[in-house]
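Q: Sequence in, structure out?
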Amino acid sequence: MVSLSQIENVTDRITEYIRSLQQERDRLRAELNDLRSKLSEKDLERIRESKERERVSEALEREKMSFQKERSQLETQVKSLCDKLGALLPQQSPSAEIKKL
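A: Exactly. Output:
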């Protein structure tokens, strides 16, 4: 038969085991909360970086469109100048151009 001291001994060991499991559970909960907090911070950082990349991309697109517009205007001005210069210079016949070469 099992003696009272053996039952107490087993009970003490089980109690100690339960305490150690509770401590481990508490430690793991704290670690989980810490990891959740870090994950939230990383998510916010990722969102901020994504929005910043989007702003930069939009700014670059606007700058590109501005440069294209400026280039088109400059090309128009150059063509206009060439047309004006062509109108000022005397017209040459194709045979005169061949003699020059």
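The CA atoms of residues 54 and 60 lie 10 Å apart.
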